[in-house]
Structures are given as structure tokens and as C-alpha cells.
User: Fold this.
Amino acid sequence: MNEYAKYLVEIARKWQNEWRRSRVFEADPQPGRKKFFITAAFPYPNSPLHLGHSRTYTITDAYARFKRMQGYNVLFPMGFHYTGTPILTMAESIAAGDKELIDLMINVYDVPPEDIEKLKDPLSLARYFHNDAKQAMMEIGYSIDWRREFTSIDEEFKQFVVWQFMKLKEKGLLKKGTHPVGWCPKHNMPVGMHDTKGDVEPEIGEFTLILFKLENEDVYLPAATLRPETVFGVTNIWLNPEAEYVLVEVDGRKYIMSKRAVFKLRFQRDNVREVREIDPGELFGKRVVNPATGRRVPILPAKFVDPATATGVVMSVPAHAPYDYVALRELLENKELLEKYGVNSEELTPIPLIEVKGYSELPARDVVERMGIRSQYERDLLDKATKELYSDEYRYGVMRSDIVELVYPEAPSELRDLVRAAVKAWIVGQPVSVAREATVKWLSAIGRADKIYEIMNRPVYCRCGTEIVVKVLKDQWFVDYGNPEWKRIVLEHLEVMRIVPEELREEFRKVVDWLRERAVARTRGLGTELPWAKGWIIESLSDSTIYMAFYTVIHKIRSYGLKPDQLTLEFWDYVMLGKGDPKAISAKIGVPVKVLEELRSEFEYWYPLDSRHSGRDLVPNHLTFFIFNHVAIFPRDKWPRQIVVNGFVMLEGKKMSKSLRNIIPLRRALRIYGPDTVRAAILAAAELLQDADFSDALARSVMGQLAKFESIAAKALEHDDRVDLVDRWLLSKLQESIEYVTKAMEELRVRSATIHVLYEMENMASKYLELRGGKPGPALLEYVKTWTKMLAPVAPHLAEEVWHRLGGESFVSIEKWPSSDKTKIDYEAELAIEYLDKVIEDVKSILRIFKGKPRRLIIAVAGREYWSYARIAAEVLLARQQLRTLIQRFVEAGISDRKQAAQLAQKISRVFSELSPETLKRISMVEEFDEKAVLEKFKDYVASRLGMEEVVIVTAEEAEHKELVPPTKLAQAVPMRPAILVE
Assistant:
């Protein structure tokens, strides 16, 4: 750790102690004062908080601090989520002596070897990392009201969760039924995101099984597909020649499928009986009958077939499936193999089914050739091609009319005509989405379709290491997120909520649309027992949907010593919903009426939740469930107002992961760089949805900026009382900064706000000192005081330290956020410094091509009499008017010779067209501007910046009189662009 980082750690500890002593972040209701209730997803204490976790919390804290300084009574509480299997699984693995995990704990997570023993018990492990996480949050300076801390297995919270689930049950939003769920075969329980390695939500998809009957046998090959509408174009069936297949009876019907498929199917069907193993080699060359067309198609080998996905039986549609096209192309090149299986190339000709604009009759061929795919082993490219083509065909594809000719060509005419009529009516000319559904209905009606569920993002692993499968769970309790009326209300509220960033609103809409029933309980893990189903624990994404409401009263429940058995359904109905008679409830549960009313009043003051913060990975589950449950349980005026979502954190350009061992515990980072450095670097690294890249270079850059801030603040105390143009400029630019940073913080553009406060404001202050020759005037002190306030949400500890050195008596953390003072906006001063910078840049561009050693610089400015024309030109350009308007305005302003007016207009407009609208506005607002006086004032600064021995400032008239500058060059001098000569 360098000395400055050590210093930052010391002052952080100092001010954290002062905040704690003064209880500055403990928020209580203040009737009449505007409130702001903000929360972030509470952490799982199954490992230390690391830099990745800190992003959500740091954004939340910076925003909370900003709102507090805006005058809001801000409540920012924190709890800890013990529910579920992550803690249990981690403790079990450590107790079992998992060497890799223990090594990770010691050498990556910084757990002392002597503490490993404590982590073998689930509750001990949870409390260990709970305390560690809380300490990290305190050390980084989060402005949390710790009185309201709780865990999701506290008995008081369990009573709250029981009430929540009773309300859902009363409203008919919990139902008992049969539904597919992600399932751990080892622990025999449903699993969700928080039960899996890497917190991956198992995505369940339904494959249609199209039953191809083996010729002359009462056996079916169930080809699994997500595109049943393409069945009309099947040329063959694929099996993997190296996979294990079995003959199995499913509900009395015989199927041939992969051995792994049988294992998975047992979790979805009751009557699955394995008959015998099948060598796929015995099947190659045999024919099956396509149930949609009556066509006989061969069974052929393809190694790309994954026996672990669905049934391991794949129908080949080479016209529309890149994998099939490439595999078939390779097979057709092997004449020996074709002969062996008795197959001729004609019967394998791709059959076009779908018309898509931009593609030929064979879309699969188009995309394969465009991507240059040569082999079925180029899986990454084939996956990309498949995704692209399937998407295009689904969105824009239409079923071809000649499909009809494919259906039962050899069948008796009566049957053929009947089937073709149905295909023509339901499928031909229809969009792919419509044809897909119609095909499944038709094949199901004739008994030639089945289904199997699959984990679409497989492999997903339980935290115990077992691969997750899909189980059709019977007679179990589910949250009915598929309820159409519930969805309607959620979508209605979603439209009026503020979603930050706004582009995620559509993602939320899509999640609401596809959400279906969700299993609510598990048979193991920590948490609350489902009140009417003993032995089942409510899972972690179901008990964490409205817990924000619990923050409002838990500290009062504890301070009044209320017992868990007093927290009845009636208690929560009154406190949360205002239902019931407090006197009757008081008499029944033994809680004084005054206490009940106080708890109700506390909840009423803080709710609804004003801002909910979380990572993007929780959009498809927790954050959407959060909206669902709030609109189900609470009245409309208590529904959440805002959701803020952020991306992830990378380290030195790489994703943080256990396998890479590049996870940095937050407390270690705080020791290395200092709390304010870590906070500012996290905030400066990226805007909300972008992944933030934390690097040593960024942290050291930020640390350097913090040191510069402190140095400039010290310099401000040495100021004199002389106010000049540079002071006016600095205070004017300060108003711009206030407006910019305030707007950025309001919009949660935290990177923009942080970069401006850390870098742009330091640049302005340093430039000010340089322009004043290192001797500050009174403006710098005012600037630094305001700057300190604006830095407080980002680097609160250093801001407190500097604030008090500047004479502040209260905490800067609760000072009033600055507002811009329009009276201090000085267009003349801003224009002067901008003009100065522009001249210096113009000279630099000349010096880049100058040959020889520059000695003297002559700058010949346009006379002051031309300024009125400059103002007119600025007005005309700002109004986007044409050159002829400018010429006419010049004539009206006194240039009687129209040709002369046109020449001046052309010269000025050529220069001014390169200026920003802001500069043009300043020009139009400044009545008189003396370019020569500005350059004379800063002559030494100009010489220093350009390395010139001599700088001569003259008007164009003086230069002409003294013959200092050639006439052709002098003729170029116009307002804002002097003639420049380097000797």
C-alpha cells in the first residue's frame, strides 16, 4: 500500500467513527419532510463481499447520499439473505474437506486458516461472512441505517414471510398443481438461480417429439425439435454413432432414445421402462415414416448430435438447419457410406419449406456459405449460424405453398385430399409462429407428437455438483406468475414506474410475458417453512420479494421487545395494510395500541419504496417478482416507484471467476487503495448497463485525482482578495458543473458525474491556478467548497476531511447540495478564456508543420469595431439562417457596399461554422469584446504554453501600419480568429 492509500484508510476510519457517533445516517420519520426510501439487494453471506458485489452497493450509496444532500430524509437499510441452499452447500463442502474450496477460502477470499473450522457449520459460516460483509460495508463508508439490519432466518422475519404467503394464497395466486421445474436428482428438490453454481437460473424449454415409426416395427424414434413446422422437409433421421441408445416403453409405447434421455424422462413421466440397449449401428440405413408426409426416410449417423440434449434423436432438415446441411454435405461426399446404408443422393436433396426475404430457396446453405463453415465440428460458427437463421425465419418467414405437394403423395386419394386440405388451411402461407403451433396440434391429434422438457441453458449444476434436470412436479405449490390478470396489473404498473436505464423496460415486459408457474419451496436449506406444508422451505427467490417493507418496522419490533408469536397475521394486516381494529388486535396479541399505531405510522411514512437497486442478472427473476408481489399484496399507492439496474464488474479486462482466481475481496481492495479510491474507481469505470472494468491503473489514476483535489483545496486557503477575469471565469464554469453533475446524478449516469467531479473540475481548478500564476484569488475557495460537496457522494471520507479543513462545522454528508447561481454566469469571462485556448491551439497547429526554431510569435487581432458583426453572425448561425440573411444583416448594420458585406460574411461564417452552439451563444451575449486586451493580459501564459521567447499582440490595423504581418495573412483576421505569424 502506498502512503496516500494508507492515509485514505486512516481518514475513512476517522469519519466513519464520527458518523457512527453522531448517528448521522439513522433515519426516522419526519412528518412534513420529503422522504426517500432506497434499498439494494441484500447479499448472501456464503463468501466475502468482493469488488463485483460492491458496484451495486456503491451506486446505491452514492445515489442515497446525493438525495440526502438534496434535502430528502433518506432511509438506506441493509439485511442479509440466509435463505436457500448456497450457505448449506458451502458448509457441507468445507466439512467434507473439499481441498479446492478450502484453498479458495484461504488464498483468494483471505479467510485465516484457523477460521476454516468455523465454516463447517451452515449457521456459523453464514454469521462469519455476514459479519465480514457488514464490516466491509462499514469500511467503504456506506450510509446505512444499521438499526434495521436483519437476516432472512430471524424468527420475526419468518412471521412476516408467513403473512406474505397467506396473502398470496388468499388471493388465489398460489396454487397446487403439476408443472415442470428445475430439479436436483441428488437432493430430490426443485432448484432456482440461487441454488445453482454460478447463480444460473435453469431455463426450461419444451421440445416437441415427432414420432417417426420404424418401418415394419411397432417402434418409434422420437425426434426432438424446437421447430416442428419443418417436419415437412425431413430428409433423414440423425443418431450419434458413438452414443448409447436404448429401447424404452413410455406409457405403453416403444421409443428408441439416448440412455441419458431415459434418465431425464423418468423425472417427467411415471411409466418409463427400459427394455434393452440398442446399438445405433444396427439402425443406420433403416427407414422410418415421416408422420407429416408419409415419406420413408433413412436413419443416418452424425456426430454433432448431442445424446444429452432432449432424446438424442434429431430430424434432418438441411434446407433450414445449418448443422443438418453441413452434416449432409459431408455425408454425400462419402459414396462408400451411402452405398453401405443403401441411400442415394437424390432422396437426401434439401426440401425448401419457408420463404424469407434476403435468402434463397435453401437458407441454410446461404448462411453456411456466407460464414465459410466447412465442417460439422465448427460448433461455435454453426451455433451462430443456427441462431441467426432460426431468428430470421421465425420473425420474417412464411410457409411455402408447395408444401402441400409433399403430403402423402402415395396415399389413397380420399385420405390424401383430406390431409392436404388441412395443411393448406392451417399451415400454407402462414407465418412460422402460426404454422409451428398448427403443426403440433395436428400431429398431436393423430397421435404422432409427444413432448419432453429440457434445461435450455444446460449444463446447469446444483451447488452440490449434480447436473440439473427437469422434473414434472405433481401436487406441489407454485406461485402462479402465469395468471393473466396479475400480469395485466404488473404491466400496467411497469409503464408508470421509472426504469433506469430506460432501455430495460422492454426486457421487463418480456420477462412478465414469459413468466409461468414457479415452485415456491424446497426440501432443504435455511428459511421459512411453508405454513401449510410441513417439511417444505420457501425458496430464496420467493421470500425476498417484499422484504423491503420489513425494514420499516424491524427496529421498532426489537426496541419494544415484541415476541415472534405476537407477530400474527392480524398484526401484519394492520401494520402493512391498515386493516383491522388496533384495540382488538392489541387485546388479542398483547401489543399496546400505541406501539401498533407507531409501527403503522412508520410503515406509512416510508412506503412506497422509492428506488430499488440490483444487478442485471436479477431482471428475469427477483426484480420482476418484486413488482408482481408488491402489486398483489399492497394497495396501489404503496407500489414501488423506481428500479435501477447495473452491469457487472471485470478485473483488468477479464470476468471475475473462481476458476481464474481473480476475485478480489472488497476489504482487501479497501486496504490496498483506500475506500474512497475503490468507490470512485467503481463509479468512474462505466455507466449503469456497461460492465465496469476495475484495474490497478484506473485505481491509481483515481487516487492521483483525489490527491490533486486535496492539494488544490489546501491552496484555496492561501487566496488573496484580488478578483479578476479568471475568478469570474472559474465561478461561471462552476455553475455549469453544478448543473451537469446534478442532472447526471438524477439520471443515474454515475460515470459521467464521477468523471466530471474527479477530472473535469480538477482540470478547471488547475487551469485557474496556472492562469493566475499560481496565486489564487477568492473564487477558488468558493469553488472548492462547492466542489467538496459535489465530491461527497463519490468520495465521502476525503470530502469530510477537506470540508472541515475549509471551516465546515456540520458534516458535508448532510450539507445542502449546491444549486447553480445564474447571476454568476459570465459569458464574457468564459468567452475570453475560450478565445485564449483557441488561439493557443491555432498556433500549435502551425508549429506542427513549422520548420526551424520558433522565436517570435505575432498575433494580429481583428479590430473591436468588427465585434458587432460577430454578434450578428452568431445570432444568424444559431437560428440556422442562410448566408444571404447574414449579408443583409451586415448591410443593415452599416456596411453600405454589398460586395464588402458579402466578403466579410463569408469570412466570419467560415470561422464561426466550426464553433459550438455554446460558443456562438456566448458571442451573441457579449456586447463588447477586446481580443487584444485578453491576449495582452495572458501574454506570459501564452509564451509559456507555446515555448516562445517573444509574443507580440497587435490589431490588424497596427500590424499593417508597422508591416509586421504580410497583407495576405492580415486579410484572414476576423473576430475569434486572428492572423498568426511565427518567426
